[in-house]
Amino acid sequence: MDELNQLVTSLKGVGAKRGEVLNSLGIRTIYDLLTYYPFRYDDIQEKSLDEISDQEKVVLKGVVLAEPVVNFYGFKKSRLIFRMMTEQAVINVTFFNQHFLKSKINASEEIAVYGKWDGRRKALTGMKILATQEEEIDFSPIYHVTKSIRQKTLVDLIKVTWDEYGELMPENLPDWLIEKYRLMPKNRAAYAMHFPDSIEENRLARRRLAFEEFFLFQLKMLQLKQQETSKDLGKSILYDVKALKGFIQTLPFELTGAQKRVVNEICADLRSPEHMHRLLQGDVGSGKTIVAAVALFAVVSEGMQGALMVPTEILAEQHLESLQGVFEGTSVKIALLTSSTKTAERRQLLADLASGELDVLVGTHSLIQDEVIFKDLSLVIIDEQHRFGVNQRKMLREKGNQADVLFMTATPIPRTLAITAYGEMDVSVIDELPAGRIPIETRWILPKQVDSVLTWLNKQLKQGQQAYVICPLIEESELLDVKNATEIYEHLKEFYEPHFSVGLLHGKMKPQEKEAIMTQFKDNKMQILVSTTVIEVGVNVPNATTMMIMDADRFGLAQLHQLRGRVGRGSLASYCILVASPKSDQGKERMKIMTETTDGFVLSQKDLEMRGPGDFFGSKQSGLPEFKVGDIVADEAILETARVEAAQLIASSEWAAQPENEKLVKALNERAEESKYFD
Ligand code: ADP
Ligand code: MG
Hints:
By secondary structure, the chain is of the alpha/beta class.
């Protein structure tokens, strides 16, 4: 292993400069180089035109009809075009900036082109020309590279390095696991990632390496959990059961079965001397706030304090209002702290918090500031927890006195994912909506139909109901978001005023402005609210029964679902209108799925299948671990097996001392940190 830990610059032919290029790819040592696996393989299988969907990458074979034509334009830019006859049709093939391919493309010859299919233009944008001999068209590993190093250079370097050092690649898994699952030995698997003899061999190699990653990851997580529970004893909160029951009686409705179940789970955690570390998952509108209120009440009934942290001011306001509602008539004292809290008010509030005068504090990131000191913070609740970084969550927890922690999320993470990402937490799920909800009716329309929908909406508004209009999210620029929203706002104003009032809400507004607009909307002084996605989480205006989402295909399914959850919160029939003209088949499919189900779990599963976990939560803030080989969605079954094995192993107290697990312990100490999971 020591030899594999040498820097790549110790290899022949790798100087300081090349070493730097490799470093930029994350390759520091020889081991890193040997395990720098391809990020994908072009599974180069020929397809026929009717099997391909729009924007799909494929290999098409055909006969070149005439010599290609090359045009030069701009600075060093070129376009090469030729016509190719496939078995079904004649299509255009275009290569950009690869005019040198001209010599390889000869009239009347057969050719195989790898490229991206444009379904509307019925044309292929070429990426690569392949040899047409059957055996050569199969399987080509693709590595992430930079401008400074070519695929071929990297592959050659891996090959010579492998020949010299490959045998030293250590086995990380114990024999008993390898035998049990008939896994490929580590060094053979690593080799077959780069230079597979067959697709099947490569598949088995991936399976083996994914298993190893998942297994080490789960084992490490479980180990951390064990350490945490043993050093942080938590405390037993023996709340007043009678008072709590009495409080639940005063609620304006009966808790759903699912709410009762999770309340019991949480209350058991509070009573238990162990530390609570629980994730409460519940679809939008499932009633998580009440559950939080019950937990807070329990803690306060024992003279302790609670905190509820949420990602936005609007949401904080909203939570404060709901909690004030349910705590009315009780002795629970509650306050709000955000960055807009006025200085004098803030001073008083902090004093009351430190003296224990105040029982519950609701707020945004402001809660984790140094000056915020609790007398006896025993329950920390974090809503929309994936919006906060690990450190922010930790800072709030550390303000507590061995505080119990409850995370809440409306993002319906599939079970396996939740366990993977938050393996160290217990999970409670509210899988039932309050009775009497009428399912939201979802329609997908084209942009040209918008005005007829506005006419239809007129009737809804006349009956006293309200509507949201959500504007597309333009990722590159918040300014464009605002511009877009403003245009839509102007159009609606023209359409509806003076009969109905239209308001605009966007992320560039000051908190006070946003608040003023929200208040008007809540009080039905404004009937239509045009908004960017700032309203995404948590707002509750039961009288708003229609939501129209512009350019809906720009949103992920999970996000559309969150947005849609803003309507259908009362007893009236509700509607969600998706305005979109998606170009790809996948885009159309996504709109269709939205009209077919309102089940957040089904949608999130679909979203994962169609977009991959990175995109699932939008951007990289998901907090989901990334693996080198394993894919938590596609390799779900492997993940589950690895989890079960890890849990079984760690349940025995002597596992680490057993000689058969020696390699594993070593790998866990040396290798499990090599990835970014535990940052
Ligand atoms: P979310 O889980 O999205 O945070 P909320 O807590 O905001 O959901 O609840 C959504 C709405 O449902 C609120 O208006 C709340 O008062 C109502 N609600 C919650 N629980 C019940 C219940 N058991 N029966 C009827 N209505 C309920
Ligand atoms: Mg909520």
